[in-house]
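Aim 2 progress update. The chain analyzed this quarter is reproduced below.
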Amino acid sequence: MDPLWAALALFGAVSVGVYVLYGVFCSVSVLNSAVLDFNQPGGPASLCSLSRFILRSLRSRAGHLNSDHSDHSAKEKQLLITLINCRYEVVSLRRYCSVVGYGWDYPDSTFRDIPLFYPQFLCSRLISMVTCSLRFRLSPYGLLGVCQTVRLLKPLDELKRGTFSLQVGVEEYRSGGGGVEVDLSLSLRTAQQEEEGWSSTITLISPHTAYTHALQPHTTNDSKCERCIRVAVPWWASVMCGGPGFSLPLPSSLLGYGCPATLWAVSRCLAETEKLKGADAVRAPLTLTVRYRRPLHLPRAVSIRIRESSASVHSSSDRSYTFTMEDDKAQTLILTGEMQGL
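Predicted structure tokens:
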């Protein structure tokens, strides 16, 4: 071989090696950071994230709380990741709306707010980073959703006016009969808001081997059901979950949080509620409580039932709705939700 070509080949191989090592270094640095910048180029590489997921899954047993032997202060041990300087992206919102049933033209519609669970869609990558963190005390493999509470105080259209920040953190761990539960806090704050306009608390469980969701007997009274719609769960519901600034072409269920199908399920229920009752039904301020009864497996056909319920005595609003999603094949309840205006 010509010495010149050999030198060029060697130089190319060394350059590629240095580039790969630099990418891995940057990825590890991002994964270990507490504050990330939306404008910062690059993000956690797929291989690095997947490697950390596999390592944490092998080192931690499902259903067991790992002991924390660090001597750091409580503030330093708090697992909290913040993404700053985020900006509204029409393409991201359009993709989310088309996936969960709002329609591809939703962002161009008038008198309609940004969907309630769109901030959680944006937080999906931060959730994966938290659950795959070395400081997360549960195995990221096999986490299941138990319940979730969402509180919306300000319209989400405020995101279009400037930058905003996303934050995901661990609140507390609890041991129970079925396994170990963990509460994750999600929040969104715009530059113009002094308080969180949108916040959510998700309870996940790392179950024992024999764990099953505690199901209550379920009976349906069709005479009180205002709408019942049967939909097919799309196979791509588990992969359309990219967050702002990060592009990771892997289902986030592989990264320790089996939420994509669950996020699709509750988002589709809210989309059908808005179609039935109008945009005022999901307008701020409101609170939503969702209880996940059984994991949603793909492929499936499900039925969504929507009802208008009596308003709570603690609420000054007459907006109160309940919805359920059922598995048509197994005749089991997947989730229940209750939405209440404030």
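The helical segments are 3-31, 46-59, 74-77, 90-100, 118-131, 260-277. The longest helix spans residues 3-31. These observations will guide the mutagenesis experiments scheduled for the next reporting period.
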